[in-house]
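Teaching note: in complex prediction, the entire set of molecules is handled at once rather than each chain in isolation. The prompt given to students was simply: 'Predict the structure of this complex.' The entities are:
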Amino acid sequence: MNQTAHTAVHRDDLASKTGMWLFLYTEMLLFGTLFVVYSVYRYRNSQAFHLAAEELDVAIGTINTIILLISSATIAMSITAIQLKNKKLALGLLAVTVICGLVFLVNKYFEWGHHIHEGLYPGSEILRQRGYGDVMFYGLYYFMTGVHALHIIIGLTFIGFVVYYIIKDDIKHDDFVLHENSGLYWHLVDLIWIFLFPLFYLIT
Amino acid sequence: MQETHTEPDYLAYQGKHKGIFAWILSTDHKRIGLLYLFSFLLFFSVAATLGVLMKFELIAPGKTVMDPQTYNAMFTIHGIIMIFAIVIPGLPAVFGNFFLPILIGAKDVAFPRLNLLSWYLYTTGVIFVLVAIFAGEGAPDTGWTFYAPYSFRTAGNMLPAVLGAFILGFSTIITGINFIVTMHRMRAPGMTWTKMPLFPWSLYATGWIQLLATPVIGITLLLIVAEKLFNIGFFDPTLGGDPVLYQHLFWTYSHPAVYIMILPAMGAISEIISTLSHKTVFGYKFMIGSMLGIAIVGYFVWGHHMFTSGMSNVSMYTFSLLTFMVAIPSAIKVFNWISTMHKGSIDLRTPFYWALGFVFVFMIGGFTGLMLGSLAADIHLHNTHFVVGHFHYIVFGGTGFAFFGAMHYWYPKITGRMYDERWANIGLTIFFIGFNLLYGLMLWLGYEGMPRRYFDYDESFHLGNIYSTMGSWIMYAGLGIIIINLLVSLKNKRLAPANPWGGSTLEWTIPSPPPVENFDEIPTITKKVYHYE
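The expected output is the structure of the full assembly:
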């Protein structure tokens, strides 16, 4: 009996899902820590945070929120599709998810680019002259949306693998836990954004 | 027993890879446990040697062998390696990997490949830390705590060290997830939660702390990286940031991390004491409850590291009270260990001596912890060697004694051979004397007011430091004897029987060393845990 057989005999979907949920807890604490940092500095610089938040473009934020919600819906539907043995539909829905994720990143790129062009980035002289509150607001804005964007990229990579495995028929109607776990991860990334959006764009 | 067995044992087993690859590509939980063990041996030797060198510097006031900057770098590297690369992965990585599946009657952990990945992450993390020492502007010099704003202002090579600690955190999280899922999904039929031995239980409690605390340090270290690279300013007072906030975030993880270190130690000690007293653990359910209690309350005491950093009075009282509360479950455990021995038929073997040593040093560490937890005393003691003595009593005394105890307890099972008990006992005695001389005197010197983190001190502390430094040599010699004895015994002719101590947990029902798949047939558990006639 060789090593690969040793690991392959054992398949436990519930274990994999439990593991994923536990991992999601760690993600929540990761962002939870950032929310704590945000609350501390918002409390100390409420006026500056109020004014700085008004500079962000609510329209792009709203569009990005809608895009992520759609992408979450399509990945959930693709999991149902694979269970119903509809491989083509599952792949199509995943493609929509991936496109949504990419569009989100492109929007984010232009948004960041716009602010950086205005000289509003960590360490810039303009930001420093505007005072502590603005330094903190934009610091948090870049760091939190940056870490979130990193998660989008990781999520897209996962989904890329899922697409590959579906094409290879490694993920199919009776073996789709990887697909489901990627979905869970993607929903979390979406959920984090649901909190980031009001914190930076809406609460002014 | 060995002969009747059809499967090869895990050491003799030949997979598709040969030589070293049979180890570093193996997903067998037993081999991964040993990979960790030998990594520890290597890094522990380095970090312990640094410790001895620091003590040598302190043998006399003024410069003895190194300048201040070297001393700063040494205690930083000593701290980073010892904390992040040895005691935090510590017992779970070695004995958890090796024995958790066996103790719950499983063939492996839930995610064997993830388990191997965690060792690779661990190795990568340590390499980052080592790069920090030898490359760039000079070794890190902030202390293992990376306190802001110094950590992003110093010329020292902080970036790789911080990233290394971040990667080591990932390794911890993966191990934690793996163990929790393993215990939820893979216990043998009949092994209910209240029939599970205490070492797995301690890993369960630890797993949750690893899971819920480590992400906080992860993101905090990334924030330090962002401070260094992009001047983001969260912890930089000149940009409106708050360095004390860094301390809060850091200790939100790093205090629970102390329980990541000590809980598995407590679990292993419970196994040793029960087996060698041939008696069921006294207050088994209270033992579980107290471990979970420590894990939960331990999450809310981080502020006691910051009594001198500036905090409101209300927070100080609250953190102080909560700190005292952790002492309750810890004391329950000590009482239960003693009660387990009471009227047992005690077999005075080497692991038992280690367990006794553990209880002794753990109590000193615990009581000095209470002194530091009381507000008035802490103001005086906080920046002195008293703190250094205290946490070495807990971290090295607690986790270290339990680690060596577990090593001597499970050695016959892991290697299939007995070790020389006489040399083991001699090593332990020398180690114990050196340990108490070294750290006991630190407590006294600190109480007298000798500050920590300086390469120099006032002439009035000279005498105590001479004896403390001599203690470090004695302890180092003891460690040498213990480790060499264990290594030499690998060639010992005396083969270990399946159950050398007369234990009742599952690992003693299978041959020594265990076969690749642990069990021919997954056992069904009918008796209660720790059953002795």
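Point out the following to students. DSSP finds eight helices and no strands in chain A. The radius of gyration of chain A is 20 Å.
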